[in-house]
Fold this sequence. Notes:
By secondary structure, the protein is mostly helical. It has helices spanning 21-83, 90-112, 115-128, 130-151, 162-165.
Amino acid sequence: MAGNASPNPSGGPNAGSGPGAAGESADWRGLKHDVEDLRETAVERGRGLMDAARAQAQDYAERRKGDAARSVNDLAQTLRDSSKTFDDRPNIKAFFDSAAEGLEQLGGSIESRTFADFYEDAEAFARRAPVAVAVGTFVAGFIAARFIKSSSLPPDGSYGRFDDRIS
């Protein structure tokens, strides 16, 4: 292949040589411009898609936040109702009432805060206590593994057949 037969897209020594090099160079610049426009459009659409997904996730979290707050408040009310059975034992009643009050405060906190606030608090905790987060993650993984292992079928397929294991 001759060195002067085709233009060099990098603008090197062969970029302007050969017959029709000016037209081909203009074509190359046009193609380069079109590709750049496509890239910018793709980036803009990607950002729009990410913003829409983020908004949808935050909306979902806000809706679920209300459900969680109601559940916590219901649990607090149940504890308060349970404490009434301990009227003759003031120490136990005080314990139940204190736990119910703490749960009511938690429910109020859940309702009044945004998802971003919870995320920031979790991130700050992870930065303050990385060992606690690592241990918690390990424990959660261990519990999940035990749960999955206990709910799977034994390799011999004897799940539910007690009489076969007695021998």
